[in-house]
Design goal:
The complex is a heterodimer of chains A (784) and B (165). Chain A contains 21 helices and 28 strands. Chain A is of the alpha+beta class and 784 residues long. Chain A has three domains: 192 residues, Aldehyde oxidase/xanthine dehydrogenase, a/b hammerhead (Aldehyde Oxidoreductase, domain 3, Alpha-Beta Complex), CATH 3.90.1170.50; 327 residues, Aldehyde Oxidoreductase, domain 4 (2-Layer Sandwich); 147 residues, Aldehyde Oxidoreductase, domain 4. The longest helix of chain A is centred in the last third of the chain and has 27 residues. In chain B, a hairpin with a 2-residue loop joins β1 and β2. The chains are: A alpha+beta (784), B alpha+beta (165). Chains A and B meet through α1 and α19 of A and α3, α4, α5 and α6 of B.
Chain lengths: 784, 165
């Protein structure tokens, strides 16, 4: 009996090279004759640029070239925006690779130096004299949208990049008839993704052939190849993009950046391989940020806790320029999810995308959905407080009952399947919620402030189908592709268009193929991240690699299986209809002894000495899979905190997560995704915030100033699951990359507010630093 | 720019490098000695990706000048163990799913090695404290803590001990 690998927590195929230090990331590559680029970045958030004197830098030891925007304006086209959200009055401001007349955020590139070694390049940066005339800057999106704010782009009135609205149901009636209305203003603070590997690029250009190879820290090499052709002019057939080992992305390695393309430009000009590594300071200043919403929300309900409507306005900071996918994040990926797991019957949201003198904002783990989940889940707790009901009971009252084949929302989505009440019930019983409430009551009597925070969520992921991509203005497709190639010995190569960078698909995809065609996981090698060897694909983000790419792979593997069955039937002199694939073998039904292994079939298919009529040689199949719908994972999380009233210190005591991503291919990998996601969300609630001062300087410009979650500050995270297959996915799987982050921030937020409820504290802006919490307590209690 | 010869014993083998006065140990290890398993995550001493054991202590190679290491012994991830002869920590990280993107892993394993050498029997809190200088953005640390705890238990039982340890 062949063991089914789907569902088994086998060890990762990636790990042997990672644990012994032999893995190769972009910065580990060295080419003969390689030289180094360094970028001169604006120290001003907003300034006009006068003369730039590069003469001293040019004369500096080891320097090969210094280029400013004047030198690159012909060779580098402006950065394209690739998510042109329709019906939103979108204004895409010109985004040059190197600024010429105006800089618009601290980190905008004004020149590049190429030198023999990186130290020489950085020395030369200090010798470039730029004449800046500082201009007033604006960093807060709500302020930037107001009258009289500094204009980031002269041709964009009121800094309004777009105004997008979504509505469904009769919101006005919901509020007119509401028995209870709760309101809140929430700041979804700006976050810095902090992939542990900074971005890097290595460009090699053959001036004779015009061939470019670009190694880059990207989540989507095929999209980058396309965008590279637009910006640098190197056509797609001449450009090979390789994402070698990539050290995390979390959304920040989705977009194309000027840095990569400037590196390509330098390699083209100099005819030598050019490497550019961003410093961590550059990563903070110029690699995209996440979130940055100012949200005003009203929730309408009945006194019995039934939610009847949601109305909100969001000012979403976009930074100084629109990054590759930026406009779709606070709109499509955000507003459409507002009905949440309650099927809220009336929704109206206005989203204003606003230019500010800050680093461009892009996808950051969850991308729009954490901000939507936060709004709804926070308001549910506010409603509970208002009507004196337990937050768990308000959720139970409103959750959509279990469904397995579609639930339509008023925002036009169709959730694929869900069982939200079971997830919540399992969470409450595992955590012993009733006991926790009793302990909280006891603690309060002795002056201790314990809080319980719930969050129930549904998210849209597995981004696709392509028809929808077109309708929502995404300038690309959202299908995925896979090739399964079986060699004469039965060993298998799998080529995929997505580009995993830490999520373990070399393992989970081998598990899928092994089961589908009858080989061991060790017989399957998964190849990704090289546009010359892999089929076109749209990349790894939006929890879509397994949800879409895994489906493509399963379909390709099934084509191989079907062909193998035909060949095996021929070899066994049986009718194809009498064949079955069972226990990893191709056998005649009812005669398990009459069977061929995949290796036996593969040998014959590859030598082709004795093939069935009209069957081509070889054993290989490819698929382009366009999913019929998104997938909708869901779950329920609980955070338990204790707040020290005297100091404002928040102690996260316990965290329980229940997530449903459908059937799990590898539960150890799923658990790791949940842990990592939950901790990033906890980070937003408790520690993380990108802070700009009034002049637009990034105050939290290093890992010392920006508080990232560290091992010593976290509790053990309890991870449980339910399993509700997606009805439309060939394997039923839904995706798990972002779930933890989507649920956890508001769970912790609600817990802290629950703890402070008796003190009269209603809202605190994140993160919950002791000072902020202490001040809120002082204000609410007037120092008593 | 003037260079100075330094001799450092990297993973048991003496090596000579010509370094500048301002060159960090991190840059010398990566660029001169091709020790690419030592990762450059921030160059500012905050992330711990470049952690090596220098003269018995875990340090950030980015905050150490190369010339300071002259005459000293350094252990990187490759000195902790190899694929032929892995350290219990390395086996345990794989067993427990403690690796995702892998970029922080070399530094975390080296820190854990230094921790277990100083305290072979740490509790979970001590493990968390012991790797608090290492940032990981992928794992949320839980599986890393479990891996180190399990490796320590194996060490105490003598299972998976390296012969040359």
């Amino acid at each position: 009996m062949a063991t089914r690998l789907f569902g088994s927590g086998i060890r990762r195929r990636e790990d042997p090279r990672l644990i012994t230090g032999s893995a190769t990331y972009t910065d580990d590559l060295t080419l003969p004759g390689m030289v180094h680029a360094a970028m001169l970045r604006s120290p001003h958030a907003h300034a006009t640029v006068g003369t730039i004197d590069i003469s001293r830098a040019q004369a500096s030891p080891g320097v090969l070239a210094v280029y400013t925007g004047k030198d690159t304006s012909d060779g580098l086209q402006p950065m394209p925006c690739a998510w042109l959200v329709p019906d939103a009055d979108l204004k895409v401001a010109t985004y040059p690779c190197i600024a010429t007349d105006t800089v618009r955020y601290v980190g905008d590139i004004v020149a590049v130096v190429v030198a023999e070694d990186p130290y020489q390049a950085y020395d030369a940066l200090d010798l470039i004299d730029v004449e800046y005339t500082a201009l007033p800057a604006v960093t807060n999106p709500a302020e930037a949208a107001g009258d009289g704010a500094p204009q980031v782009h002269a041709d964009v009135d009121k800094n309004q990049a777009f105004h997008w609205a979504v509505s469904g149901g009769d919101v006005d009636a919901a509020f007119k008839d509401a028995e209870v209305v709760v309101k809140e203003r929430i700041i979804q603070q700006r976050l810095i993704p902090n992939a542990m590997e900074p971005r890097a690029a290595l460009a090699e250009y053959d001036q004779a052939s015009g061939d470019l190879t670009l190694w880059n820290t990207t989540q989507n090499p095929h999209i980058l190849r396309f965008l590279n052709s637009v910006v640098t002019g190197v056509p797609e057939d001449r450009a090979r993009i390789i994402a070698p080992e990539v050290g995390g992305g979390f959304g920040s390695k989705i977009p194309a950046y000027p840095g990569e393309f400037i590196t390509v430009f330098c390699a083209k000009q100099l005819g030598r391989p050019v490497k550019w590594n961003e410093t961590r300071s550059e990563n903070y200043q110029a690699t995209t940020h996440g979130r940055d919403h100012v949200q005003e929300i009203e929730l309408a309900a009945k006194k019995d806790g039934t939610i009847t409507g949601l109305r909100c306005t969001v000012w979403a900071g976009m930074g100084a320029y629109l990054s590759t996918a930026a406009p779709g994040i606070p709109t499509i990926l955000h507003g459409l999810m507002l009905p949440a797991c309650y099927g809220i019957p009336a929704i109206k949201e206005d989203v204003y995308g606003v230019y500010t003198n800050t680093t461009p904002v892009e996808a950051y783990r969850g991308a729009g959905r954490p901000e939507a989940t936060f709004m709804v889940e926070r308001m549910v707790d506010r409603l509970a407080g208002e009507i004196g009901m337990d937050p768990a009971d308000v959720r139970k009252k409103n959750l959509i009952p279990a469904f397995d084949d579609g639930h339509d929302t008023v925002t036009g989505l169709t959730y694929d399947s869900g069982d939200y009440p079971t997830a919540l019930d399992k969470l409450l019983s595992h955590a012993d919620y009733a006991r926790l409430r009793a302990e909280q009551a006891t603690a309060r009597k002795s002056g201790r402030y314990i809080g319980l925070g719930l969050s129930t969520y549904v998210e849209m992921c597995g981004l696709g189908p392509s028809q929808v991509a077109g309708a929502i203005g995404f300038q690309g497709g959202l299908w995925e592709s896979a090739i399964v190639r079986v060699h004469p010995t039965g060993k298998v190569h799998v080529f995929i268009g997505t580009s995993p960078h830490g999520q373990g698909e070399e393992t989970t995809f081998a598990q899928i193929v092994a089961d589908e065609i009858g080989v061991g996981a060790d017989d399957v090698k998964v190849i990704h991240g090289d546009t010359d060897t892999t089929p076109m694909g749209w990349g790894t983000y939006g929890s879509r690699t397994t949800a879409v790419g895994g489906a493509a792979l399963a379909k390709a593997a099934r084509k191989v299986r079907d062909k193998a069955k035909v060949i095996a039937a021929h070899l066994l002199e049986a009718a194809v209809e009498d064949m079955e694939f069972a226990d990893g073998k191709y056998s005649v039904k009812g005669s398990p002894d009459k069977a061929k292994s995949l290796a036996e079939v593969a040998l014959m298919a590859n030598v082709a000495w004795n093939m069935p009529a009209n069957v081509e040689a070889g054993l290989e199949a490819s698929t382009f899979y366009d999913p019929p719908n998104f997938t909708f994972p869901f779950g329920a999380h609980l955070a338990v905190v204790e707040v020290d009233k005297a100091t404002g210190q928040v102690d996260l005591k316990r965290y329980v997560a229940i997530d449903d991503c459908g059937p799990q291919i590898n539960p150890v990998i799923v658990e790791g995704q949940v842990h990592g996601g939950v901790v990033q969300g906890i980070g937003q609630a408790l520690w993380e915030q990108a802070v700009y001062d009034d002049s637009g300087q990034l105050v939290t410009g290093s890992m010392l100033d920006y508080a990232l979650p560290r091992a010593g500050r976290l509790p053990e995270i309890e991870v449980l699951s339910t399993v509700t297959p997606s009805p439309h996915h060939p394997l039923g799987v839904k995706g798990i990359g972002e779930a933890g982050t989507i649920a956890s921030t508001v769970a912790v937020y609600n817990a802290v507010m629950d703890a402070l409820g008796p003190l009269g504290v209603e809202t605190i802006d994140m993160p919950f630093t002791p000072e902020r919490v202490w001040r809120a307590i002082q204000q609410a209690t007037k120092g008593h | 720019m003037t260079t100075y010869p330094i001799d450092i014993k990297v993973n048991g083998e003496w090596k000579r490098a010509e370094v500048t006065a301002r060159e960090t140990l991190l840059d010398a290890l990566r660029n001169r000695l091709r020790a690419f398993e030592v990762k450059d995550g921030c160059s500012q001493g905050d992330c711990g990706a470049c952690t090596v054991i220098l003269a018995g202590r875990a340090v950030n190679a980015c905050l150490t000048l190369a010339v300071q290491a002259n005459g000293k012994e350094i252990t990187t991830l490759k000195g902790v163990g190899t694929s032929e002869n892995p350290d219990p920590l390395q086996k345990s990280f794989v067993e427990h799913g403690a690796i995702q993107c892998g970029f922080c892993t070399p530094g975390v394993v080296v820190s854990a090695k230094a921790l277990l050498e100083a305290n072979p029997n740490p509790n979970r809190e001590e493990i968390r404290e012991g790797i608090s200088g290492n940032l990981c953005r992928c794992t949320g640390y839980t599986q890393i803590v479990e891996a180190i705890e399990d490796a320590a238990a194996h060490g105490r039982r003598g299972v998976g001990e390296r012969e040359d340890a």
